[in-house]
Amino acid sequence: MDITNLKFLFYGYSAAWIIITAFVLLLVSRGRRIDRELARLRALVENKERS
Amino acid sequence: MREKATYLLGALGALVMISNLHTIFVGLPDDALQGMIFRIIFIHVPADLVADLFFTIALVTSVLFLARKNFIYDSITVACIEVATMLILVNLVTGSIWGRNQWGVWWTWDLRLTTQLMKFVLYMSYLVVRPAIAEPTQKATMSAIIAIFAYADVPLVWMAIRLPNVRTNHPSPVMGNGKMAAVYNAPFGMGMLALLLIGSALVLLRLHQETSQREIDSLRRELHAA
């Protein structure tokens, strides 16, 4: 078994999964921020309509 | 309902990917020339093909936005481009790691590599320019024009290893012409399917965020107007 080959194969798949995971985490965190902001604005509009 | 479908697609993609990784690492023999590093092809090539599919959808929706001025097309465009650009980054990084092992260098200004890097830079410019424009119609129009312009690079990358008289280090195409051993076809197809499912789930998630962002902008305008 060629260890250099194995090392680079490990680097390749690790890099791919790090990029995909980082992107997913970024999306999830942005989604949470958007949901919070949307809830806040909806509450503000509702309050304004009541008053 | 849409949220459930998105998570279902993502979970299905992850399952296909995990099962395929088992086949790739345990079930396949090493390549006679490259040894075990050839297995990088099962993520390197599908990442680019799935990205190109999303870029093509983005091209169509950009043209549709310019023709019909419906903001849903702009939302689909940005969702597709964001996910596809991430996949191009996966393609560039895995290709560079393969190149370091097989060519002895991390990067070379070969036609295929250069046009692929250009693709990444062009679509990154789309993602950088877009938030800088505040007015929604102007933002969507300018974004559609950049997306159409950037797509010109997609066929260039495809042609870079097919044109006659072009010297390139990049391996020639191996799919659909019998150059790839039949035993590799199924894991390659499964790799494509897995990334397509995961990519589609991410596009749907991003699309949902873009729709919510539009609602936020509209509520802000409503509050300011009152």
Can you tag this structure with a few keywords?
heterodimer, A: 51 residues, mainly alpha, rod-shaped, B: 226 residues
Give the SSE map.
The complex is a heterodimer of chains A (about 50) and B (about 230).
Chain A: H1 3-50
Chain B: H1 2-27, H2 41-68, H3 71-102, H4 111-129, H5 136-151, H6 153-159, H7 185-225
Helix pairs in contact in B: 1-7, 2-3, 2-5, 2-7, 3-4, 3-5, 3-7, 4-5, 4-6
Describe it.
The complex is a heterodimer of chains A (51) and B (226). Chain A is built from one helix and no strands. Chain A is mostly helical and 51 residues long. The N and C termini of chain A lie far apart (75 Å). With 226 residues, chain B is mainly alpha-helical. Chain B has a single domain (2-217), classed as Four Helix Bundle (Hemerythrin (Met), subunit A). Chain B has helices spanning 2-27, 41-68, 71-102, 111-129, 136-151, 153-159, 185-225. The A-B interface holds A 1-2, 4-6, 8-9, 11-13, 15-16, 19-20, 23-24, 27, 30-31, 34-35, 37-38, 41-42, 44-45, 48 and B 34-37, 39-40, 43-44, 47, 83, 86, 89-90, 93-94, 97-98, 100-101, 198, 202, 205-206, 208-209, 212-213, 215-216, 219-220, 222-223, 226.
Summarize the structure.
The complex is a heterodimer of chains A (51) and B (226). By secondary structure, chain A is mainly α.
What shape does the CA trace of chain B take?
A: globular
- Give me the secondary-structure category of chain A: mainly alpha
Oligomeric state: heterodimer
Q: Could you give the order of the helices and strands of chain A?
A: H
Terminal CA distance of chain A reads 75 Å
CATH names the topology of chain B as Four Helix Bundle (Hemerythrin (Met), subunit A)
Q: What general outline of chain A do the C-alpha atoms trace? A: rod-shaped
